[in-house]
Amino acid sequence: MNVGFALCGSFCTFQKVFPAMEAVASIHKVIPIFSDSVCTVSSRFGTPEEYRERTVEICGSEPLTTLEQVEPIGPKHLLDALIIAPCTGNTLAKLSCGIADTAVTMAAKSHLRNGGPVILAVSTNDGLAAAAENIGRLLARKHFFFVPFRQDDPEKKPTSLVAEFQKLPYTLEQALLGVQIQPVLL
Fold it and tell me: How many CA atoms are closer than 13 Å to the CA of 78, on its beta-carbon side?
């Protein structure tokens, strides 16, 4: 199977995302996709060069980073599934509203034209605030599947949600069967 693996800019989760990517890559061919933030933002968690190097090491190929590179995903049936991990509040909002103006959201739109599963691993500080509505919309939509998530730090960040990234490979396998694993909210 060919699995797209799109990374968005919740850099603090990358230490958990890369092992999940490795687990998926041990079973499937993984085609990496980077958001603009992953391509350009250096943070205390790493640099774009480090993210690219680690991704190439895991996947064996350069990440797709432009609209032109990801648009053929649907017409050419390049993927069996698409993972977005971490999936930020910004990306959730765009997916919920059908906006395809980034490599990640265009990859999702292009892939969805074939009815394939899109697996979302949420990481957002406003998951129980502004992003909650978008999560609800996507939970109700066909072809979207969520990696189970929980509150990140209920006392210091009471609206923050983060996926249980170690559950990503199992979520993918079940999504390929059309099943949303439960419980979604831990």
Answer: 21
What is the rounded distance in angstroms from the CA atom of residue 179 to the CA atom of residue 9?
27
The whole-model pTM stands at 0.97
Buried b (16+ CB within 10 A) or exposed e, 40-64: eeeeeebebeebbebbeebbeeebb
Cα distances from 165 to residues 8, 14, 69, 130, 155, in angstroms, run 14, 10, 26, 22, 21
d(CA 20, CA 42): 22
> Per-residue b/e over 133-162, b at no fewer than 16 CB within 10 Å?
ebbeebeeeebbbbbbbbbbeeeeeebbbb
* Residues 6+ positions from 136 with CB-CB distance below 8 Å: none
Answer positive or negative: Cα dihedral of 61, 59, 71, 34.
negative
pLDDT in tens, 135-181: 999 999 999 999 999 999 999 999 999 999 999 999 999 999 999 99
